[in-house]
Amino acid sequence: RGLLVVIDGGKALATAVRKVFDKQALIGRCTLHKRRNVAGYLSKEIAGRIDRRLASAFNHPDPAAGLARARSIAAELEADHPDAAASLREGLTDMFTVRRLGVDGRLARSLTNTNCIESMISVARRTMGNVKRWRDGRMKKRWMAAGVLEAERSFRRVKGCTAMPVLVAALRRATGVTPAKYDEEAA
């Protein structure tokens, strides 16, 4: 039916998603990870200014204009900070996948980062950290499931979920999936 996969930027993960889902999946990248990665190559005084400009570019309502701004920032960084420029350019078009789908507002903010999954992983890791001696693979799976169930307690509705029909329709158009009855509960 079409799938939006938001990842933190691992090349192997993007390759796997494309291999498994082919054209059914659109890949978006976490803008927060990208901003942190770029800032990691810059001094503190430059990083703050560049980060604000990148945030503005990634949140621009027109994805083409936002992409142009981000490319301009990369070009500016090229001479003195080539590693930061290269980091910014890597996967840059995927930063604007959600915006190209026509999603904006609160839903766009929710879907342009990987915070929700990182929060779940953190809670699961903390729960699994209580185990001092692992016996076998089944025990690991049980504790992982217990960690995810613990994380589930803090799950909330996706911010901007009322705009989900816009996303579903855009995914169908972008992936060429024939429309079916929209299932709000499944979305």
SSE series: EHEHHHHHHHHH
Low-confidence stretches: none
Quote the beta fraction.
Answer: 5-15%
Specify Rg, calculated over alpha carbons. Answer: 19 Å
**Backbone structural class:** mainly alpha
How many DSSP E strands? 2
Q: Could you tell me how far the N terminus lies from the C terminus, measured between alpha carbons in angstroms? A: 11 Å
Account of the protein in words:
By secondary structure, the chain is mainly α. Helices cover 60% and strands 5% of the residues. The chain contains ten helices and two strands. It has helices at 11-21, 31-39, 44-58, 63-78, 82-89, 97-100, 105-111, 115-128, 137-152, 164-175; strands spanning 3-7, 25-29. A two-stranded parallel ribbon has the order 1-2. Strand 1 (3-7), helix 1 and strand 2 form a beta-alpha-beta unit. The relative contact order is 0.14. The mean pLDDT is 86.
Which SSEs are present, and which pair or pack?
Elements: E1 3-7, H1 11-21, E2 25-29, H2 31-39, H3 44-58, H4 63-78, H5 82-89, H6 97-100, H7 105-111, H8 115-128, H9 137-152, H10 164-175
Parallel strand pairs: 1-2
What's the quick description here?
It is built from ten helices and two strands, in the order βαβααααααααα.
